[in-house]
Every structure is written in C-alpha cells, then in structure tokens.
Design a protein that fits this description.
Blueprint lengths: L9 H19 L13 E2 L9 E3 L1 H9 L3 H10 L8 E7 L3 E6 L7 H8 L13 E5 L11 H19 L3 E8 L4 H17 L14 H14 L8 H26 L6 E4 H6 L2 H11 L3 E4 L2 E4 L10 E4 L8 H13 L4 E7 L6 H10 L7 E6 L2 E5 L2 E2 L12 H7 L2 H10 L6 E4 H5 L6 H21 L16 H22 L4 H20 L8 H24 L9
Parallel strand pairs: 5-6, 5-11, 6-7, 11-12, 13-15
Antiparallel strand pairs: 1-2, 2-4, 3-4, 8-9, 9-10, 13-14
This protein binds one RNA strand through helix 2, strand 10, strand 15, helix 16 and helix 18.
Length: 563
Amino acid sequence: MRRTHEHMNIMDQVKEQLKTEIAAAIEAAGLAWGEDVPEIVLETPKEKSHGDFASNAAMKLASVAKKAPRAIAEDIVNHLNTDKASVKEIEIAGPGFINFFMDNRYLIDVIPEVLDQGADYGRSDVGKQKKVQVEFVSANPTGNLHLGHARGAAVGDSLCNILDFAGYDVTREYYINDAGNQIVNLARSVESRYFEALGMDMEMPEGGYQGADVRQFGEELASEQGDRFVHVEEEERLEFFREYGLKREIEKLKQDLEQFRVRFDVWYSETALYTNGNVEETLQYLHDQGETYEEDGAVWFRSSRYGDDKDRVLVKNDGTYTYLLPDISYHRDKFGRGFEKVINIWGADHHGYIPRMEAAVQALGHDKEQLETQIIQMVNLFENGERVKMSKRTGKAVTLRDLMDEVGIDATRYFFAMRSPDTHMDFDLSLAKSQSNENPVYYVQYAHARLCSIFRQAEERGITFDPAADLTPIHSEKELDVLKKIGEFPEEVAIAADKFAPHRMTTYLHELASAFHSFYNADRVMDAEDEPKTQARLVLAKAVQTTVQNGLDLIGVNAPETM
RNA sequence: GUCCCAGUAGCUCAGCUGGAUAGAGCAACAGCCUUCUAAGCUGUAGGCCGCAGGUUCGAGUCCUGCCUGGGACACCA
C-alpha cells in the first residue's frame, strides 16, 4: 500500500514560513527585489548555541546590496515580522549569520503526524513517482557472491528503499550475464567435475570455476544421472551442463540475496537480448544513426563523439560481439520500458566503463543525465587488526554467505550502509561480530528494544495507551530535542535519495537514538505520581519507536523487541 | 603514461549547493545502576583536514601542481 503525503511536515511548514518572512524582510528593507533575492537557506547549526535554525542570507546579499553582511543582517532582522513564525529570539553572529531560536512547542505537532502515518511516516513525494530503474549486484552466475557484491547488494537495496520512500517508482533489476564465454566455462567446469565424480579424468578448462558449488553440481549429476552423459555427444552434453549449471547458480544467488533481504523485481537475461532480436536491432539502429563504422574488419562505435577516450569495437573481426553491444542493447531496452532514469550500481573495477556507456546512452538519443552510475568501491577485510588476504583463484574469498553466517545480517547490512558507497572501506570482521557496545549496530537497535520494553512495562502496570492523550505535559529540552530529530526524518530521507547516500540514514538513526537515550536517562517515561505526563510521554515514545523502525527498515536492518 | 577513488583525532569514518570555535563512534581518562534493559548516560582529553600555491569577505570543501595508498585502462566478460 503506497501513500504519498502531499501536505508538508510540520517542520517544513515552520521552515517555509520563516523563509517567506525572511524574503519579505529583505524586500521591505530595500536590500533586493524579485530575482535578486537569493534563495533563503535555513540550516540546522551543528552548535546548539547557534540556535535552532541559521541563515546566511545576509552574507549572500553582501555583493548585491554592497553593504557589510552584519549590517545587512540587522536590516533584515529589523524588518522581520516574527508574529507568524514561531521565533522566540534572534541574534546576529559571526560574519553575519542570523540565528533563530524557536519557540519549539510547535514540535509537539509532529507526534500526531507520526502516529497517523505509522509505517509511512517519512514518506514524501519529492520523487514525483518518477520511474527509475536500479540495476545492482549483477554478478556473473558462476559462483558465490563475495564481499564486494555484498556491499553492492546492501547499498543498492537500501538506496532502492530510500528512493521508494522518497516517492520514486523504483524497479530493482539484476542483469544475468548468461551469454558469454564465462558460461561456456561454467558448462565445462561442471562437465569436468561430473567426470571427476564418476572417477574419470577430464581436464578443468583454462579459467575454470574451482568453487565448491560446481564440484557439488558435478557430484549431484553423477549420482542422479549416472554415467549417461559420458555417452552423449559433447555439444549436447555441454548444452545440458550449461543449462543445469546456470539454473543452479541463479537459484543460489536468489536464495542468498533473499536471505540478505534483497529482492529484485526483474531478473533480466542477457541471452534474451539475443533471442528477442534486441541486439541485432540495436546494432542496426546505431548503424542507421551513423554511430558506427567499419575498420580492420571490425564494427566500431563512435563513442569518442560523446566524450569517450576512443571508439569501441562492437563486432570483432571474427564476427562475434563484444560485451559492450549487448550492454548497449540492454540499456536501450531499459529506456524502451519507459524509465526516466536509469541507475547502475557497479563495482569499482567497472569505472572505466562509464564513459562508453554514457556515450551509448546519448547515441541512443537520451540525455547523459538520465543515466547515473554509482560506483561501489573496494572492501578490505580485517580480522583481529590484520588484513585478510583474499584469493579468487582458490575460491577462498569471503562470501556473502560467510558474512551472513558469521556476522549476521543486521550487522552486515548496517556496516555496509554506514559508509559512503564510493569510497574504499575497511570491514572489521571482529568488530562486526562482537556483541558489545563497540558494535554500532546495537546502539540503534537497543533504542528500539528499550522502547518496546517501556510498552511491555506499561502493559504490566495496567496503563492503557491513549494515542489521543493530551500532549501539553511535553516541554522539556530533551523531549523537544527528540521531537526535532523525528521531524527531520522526512527531509533526511529525501536528501539521502537525492544524493544516493544511504549512509546518511545510519548517521540520522544514530542521532535519533542518541537523542532518545539521552532523554531516557534524564527523565522517566512512566511516573506513578503523574498520570497525564505518563500518557503524553508514552505517545512520544510511540513516535520515536515508529521513526526508528521506519529508518531501520530503509537499510534492511531488524528492529528487535528485545536485545 | 592516462583516468577514477582516497589521504580529516590513536583507529574507523561524517562533513549537504564554499560559511561560525572542523564533528561522530570506538579506544583513553573521570563520574552515573534500591527506580521503564548500563549494548545506556554525563563529562574530560585528543587535529599544521597529505604538501605547496591560487581563487574571495570566507576554503576540509573550488582550481593548479606535487607526494602517498588503492583501482581501472582489450577486437575479455
């Protein structure tokens, strides 16, 4: 069930009102008119002593108004109508900041909003239901998902959740590279293991897959099918092994990802691009548009027209296609399906591929901006302070499954969500595994568990929860701090969506949890002597609980009822 | 050689379109559990933001050069 909330969050309303008043004051003071009035930005200062909101409008105006920022600030403040905005106090500080200290009682109004909207609190319509497609993970179906894929899965899924929550119409897609040489290799690897299981000798192909999964396939085939494939023509045999290996590998991918709480709407097969004629059509299209030429017996794509370093081969001189051509076809298909924006989440090893893909998208008649490629940087694994070396050849690399088994899903997802996706990260296994306060995932989860505990206690004491309780007893600084954080949630989601920055969500959650823990330690929710306060605080607690839960949902981390 | 990412507190990392005294967690130190879960709270300490120039009212943020670490640069996929 999708609901969008057209009306503005109470915090937005207050901020917008204040911005309007500031803009009016600028004109009233004769500092600037119409278009010369800069966009008013209200930021929340890091330092609490700098007020609830701060504006740098006076500094922005310095060049236009040709006056000193502080003098401008005074002009603005003198002409400001504070009646409509909940402003308690204004000060001019530093180089010309105008700091607003608000009468924060208005924040109480976020509570009914949260309770009304429940699991939808934080949802917005900034995405305007724009159709976006996000392709991520897309690991070759030839083995296990490793560390890098795990990061891509966590980041990609969280990002999709965030985009969806911010009002985009999101389709999650996994591109299955089931058509290239690597699949021939897979078939041969299965074949080799099959013969091996039968006690016969068959060499592993060059670059074959050494993983335990392939070995298992061979053994299963041998025990289920006996030696019948030994007597089958090689071509037919390999075709069967190809199909079989592929099916099993994809099943395994789906299983692992599902367990990691990552689901795709579409599993798109590369082979389908060939069978439905898309690849041929794309080649023809590029040819007709004059985007290709022949040279040295190969067909080249004029990608350098669109900023690529050099042109790229689409059809090799032996007549076979390069990887690029089906990839272009795939992107043509994406846009053909009506997506306004296509987001690729790729591993760092593909970054050199971006310019040619951007070139392709433009050659297909789309804007460069319609394609967004987010690079997932490398992950270095550490355990007990030491770097864990990984080797692909021996299949000894740490897999997504290892992480889920050893570290747990919540900690793994939180750790990946915590970091900016396009920067290198160290993954500390010992830390992720540790069940102590050193592990940051528990801080947020603990806040949720504490809240649940409060409600259990309330029930035991026979206190009935009344969502419509009078909220006037809520006025302490700690309470209002918590409410302010809650009120910021929709905007934080929107920013995270806009910046492709899931890590902003963990930062936010940590701050929210911190505000709550601080309140919890300072004040008691339930006070036998004060029934109205107890009722009001329970409602506040419910709002915190809902917001924490919604935030954790976005990054795919459970909100536990007990620790 | 060209390109991408990074270099911020002892460690891991934030820092939104340039804004105030550069933030958080962990680690360190000092306090807080007869009261809703101490996986918590309160406080202290910790920094030539890799180096050097430049742009301007103002630079961790933008530009140039350099240093260090990681990665990418196929008619492979």
